[in-house]
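Hello,

Our lab assistant flagged a job as stuck in the queue for most of the afternoon. It eventually completed. Since we weren't sure the result was trustworthy after the delay, we are filing this so someone can double-check. Below is the sequence as submitted and the structure that was eventually returned. Let us know if re-running is recommended.
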Amino acid sequence: MKPLRIVFMGTPEFAVGILDAIVKENKHEIVGVITAADKPAGRGQKIKYSAVKEYALEQNLKLLQPTNLKDEAFLAELKALNANLHIVVAFRMLPKVVWAMPELGTFNLHASLLPNYRGAAPINWAIINGETKTGVTTFFIDDKIDTGAMILSKEIEISETENAGVLHDRLMVLGCDAVLETLTIISNGEVTTTIQQDSDDIKTAYKLDRDNCKIDFTKNVTEIYNLIRGLSPYPAAWCNLKDGEQEWSVKIYDTKLEISEHNEKIGAVISTKKEMKIAVEGGFIQVLSIQFPGKKKMLIHELLNGMTFSEQAYVF
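-- returned structure --
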């Protein structure tokens, strides 16, 4: 069994779960942690640490926050750590000078069953596209995004009602198992890899933006339902809500699916004092939680306690 000296690279909460699992297993040495530079965030533009930085500080781990991964001073500091393996979880694309540096290579944990859902938002797109299963994959990094030789993968089922937040947490647990197993394989010198096979039907995990997070109410009820749960709780699906002269851009977080035939106009908002639903092709989207501009996320009954909608209200 070869002792591993690991440099871990990551930024969000998902990466913290993996790093914590490696630390707690206490079989290998974390000689350094690399994370994103501090950024101002929120209305007050206060400096915000990444989740990985906060964890590294708590654990007294050596921390690097380069703004340029090709900077000579950073590369010298990285080389001085004398790592023989790099691990990447939800970080950014690495230059070859970084991923090729350690003797045993650099492997990445990706939250999909590669080669499907390469890219920035694999958890979200698996739900948006109505997949019934997903998983995690470890692979050695090469010079393209998420295309390297695969070490192992683990599969998990997606329920018909869970959102991206719930799936994220389940995949983080699965990812911990995958990374620890990968470390054992590498440490024992038992690595065998599988080359990813490209094909025309591979699905991509495109970066999420305002355009692809907007709800298209001309789609069928299941597609709309999957989009909303695939974007909940972050970044959240949105649409415009209009009632008479008033119009709002709202975020919709939680819904129920109601498949039924109806004669309502597509996009019509049907509400009572306790319930709000939207007529779409093939049924209704029952809204359970919503956020108006400048307001906090609200359960729908809280909203309807102080707000009513006319029969002409609609979304688009």
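-- support follow-up --
The delay was a queue issue, not a problem with the job. The result is valid. The CA atoms of residues 79 and 199 lie 38 Å apart. The first strand starts at residue 5 and ends at 10.
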